Amino acid sequence: MGKIMMLIWIVLAAAVVVVGFIRLAPVDPFDWNTQPELSEDKEFRGGVFKVVRTGPEGLHDFDRIASAAPRTKLLTGSVEEGMATYVTRTKVIGFPDYTTARQDGDLLKVYARLRFGRSDLGANKSRIDGWLSLMPRPQD
Predict the structure, then answer these.
(1) pLDDT tens digit string along 51-89?
(2) How many domains does the chain have?
């Protein structure tokens, strides 16, 4: 019985260390405030890249939506700079996902990806599709 309790305490301590690392790992905003040079939608195993015609105010509207989203905060950049990166954390463990939005003329380019692991199980695509569905449609 004593060995089983010791094993339980070791597993519990390891879990606390892992969760602590996920929550407290240092972040260099300059490493995340970037995007690949793509001109069309693309899905990755750990994220998604979306290109949307929004008009010149797209980043402003996106910032309003992202800033109001649960567990999401601005990491770096701004609407005035033309590019902003947000971090969204999962509810229980706090896994961070990073979303970078950049205004490129009338196009809004959104790049969402995970930090830890290999697959986000579609969480980034789902979140970005939800945010983009709240965007106003550009006037023709």
Answers:
(1) 999 999 999 999 999 999 999 999 999 999 999 999 999
(2) 1
- Cβ atoms of 86 and 37 within 8 Å: the answer is no
The CA-based dihedral angle spanning residues 31, 112, 115, 91, taken in that order and rounded to the nearest 10 degrees: 130
Instruction: State the DSSP code for 71.
Output: T
The strand ranges marked E within 4-94 are: 42-44, 47-53, 72-78, 83-89
**CATH number of the domain encompassing residue 124:** 3.30.310
Torsion angle defined by CA atoms of residues 41, 129, 84 and 33, in that order, rounded to the nearest 10 degrees: -50
Domain boundaries, position 61: 28-133
Q: Compute the mean pLDDT over every residue in the chain, rounded to the nearest whole number.
A: 90
The DSSP symbol for 106 reads T
Residue 120 lies in a domain: yes
Does residue 21 belong to any structural domain of this protein? no
Q: Tell me the pTM.
A: 0.85
